[in-house]
Amino acid sequence: MVAxxxxxxxxxxxLKSTDETKVPPLFGLPSVALSEEKxxxxxxxxxxxxxxxxxxxxxxxxRESIVEKIKDAAENWGFFQVINxxxxxxxxxxxxxxxxxxxxxxxxxxxxxxxxDFAKPFIYHNNFELYSxxxxxWRDSFAGYMAPDPPNPEELPVACRDVMMGYSKHVxxxxxxxxELLSEALGLSSETLKRMGCMKGLHVVCHYYPPCPQPDxxxxxxxxxxxxxxxxxLQDNIGGxxxxxxxxxxxxxxxxxxxxxxxxxxxxxxxxDKFKSDVHRVLANRANPRISVASFFSSSMNPNSTxxxxxxxxxxxxxxxxxxxxxxxxxxxxxxxxxxxxxxxLSRFRI
Length: 351
Prior knowledge:
By secondary structure, the protein is α+β, with helices and mostly antiparallel strands. The chain has one domain: Sandwich (Jelly Rolls), CATH 2.60.120.330. Helices cover 29% and strands 19% of the residues. It is built from nine helices and 13 strands. It has helices spanning 4-16, 31-35, 60-76, 89-103, 107-111, 161-185, 192-195, 265-270, 328-338; strands at residues 40-41, 50-52, 79-83, 122-125, 140-147, 202-209, 219-224, 230-235, 241-245, 248-251, 259-263, 280-283, 290-297. The strands form two sheets. Strands 2-3-11-8-13-6-5-4 form an eight-stranded mixed sheet. Strands 1-10-9-12-7 form a five-stranded mixed sheet, with no helix packed on it. Helix 3 packs across helix 6 (161-185) and helix 4 (89-103) crosses helix 6 (161-185).
C-alpha cells in the first residue's frame, strides 16, 4: 500500500493540475476494472421490489402479507424500496437540503471537520477508502454517529445540525419496524433482532456526488456490500444506484418519497445466508450533483463487545453454521483496511 502522506500529496497534485474535462488520475478506474465490466439492464427488466407499509399496524393479515414480501425480497434481492413508511416527505427534503448546505460551505469550514478517525462523532472526508483502494470514488461525504449516544448539537455543523438530529429519530423508528418484520420473516418473534443488538448503533452518512466530466472513467461509489445489519437509504431523483443481480447491474430507480432498504453483511452472516447482502455501486454522472443519505445500522468502530454469529434457532443438522462468530469492531476494522475492492468481506468469516 502507498504511504498515506504520499497519497495525500498525489491527491493535492491531481486536484491542482485538474483538467476540468478529464477525471484526475487518482479517481480513474484501472483499465482491468473497466474491461471486466458486467452488463447493465434497465429496471423494467428486473424490478426491485417495492413494498407498501400501509396497514402494517392495521391487522394481522395485512402485516403477514408485508412480511411475506420482505422475506422474498431479503432472500432473493437483498434490496427493496419502501413506501408509506411513516417518515414525512418534508423531513426527507430537509435532510437533502442540509447535505447541499454543508457542501456549499466555505472550504475552510468543511476542512475543520476533515478526519479519517472514524470513531469521531462527526467527520468530513472525500473517500474513506482513498488510502486502501487503487482509485478514489467521485464523491464527498460527511458522517455522524446518531445512536446509541447522539452527539452534542454543537459537535455538528450548523448547516446540517437540526436536520441530522431530526431525520435520525425518524430513521430509528422505521429501523425498529423493519427489524421486527425481518425477525418475523425468519419465523422468529418480532423482537428477536432488536434483542440481539441490531439497533445498538446508527451511523448516518451523507454523500454529495459532483457532476463528473468522464463518468465512464470512474464511479461515484465502487462495488461493495455494506458492513451493517441493514441500511436505509434516501436517494434523490438523479439515479445511479445499481445492484448486481444475476450477474447484471440493475438500476434502483428513484421513487419519489420512497426509502431503499438493503440487507447488510452482518445479517447475511447471522441468518446463515438465508438473507442476502447484495453487491451494489453508484455510477458517476455528467449532468447534475447527486445527493444520498445512508443510515447504517451498525456500531462500526465504536466499542461493542457483543459477539455475533449465525442465529441458533435457524441452525440444524441440514443447515450447520457457515460462519464463525465475530464482533462488529473486528469486522469493520478489516473492512476499512480492505477498502471497496469489489469483493465481499464475508468470505473471510466463512468456516
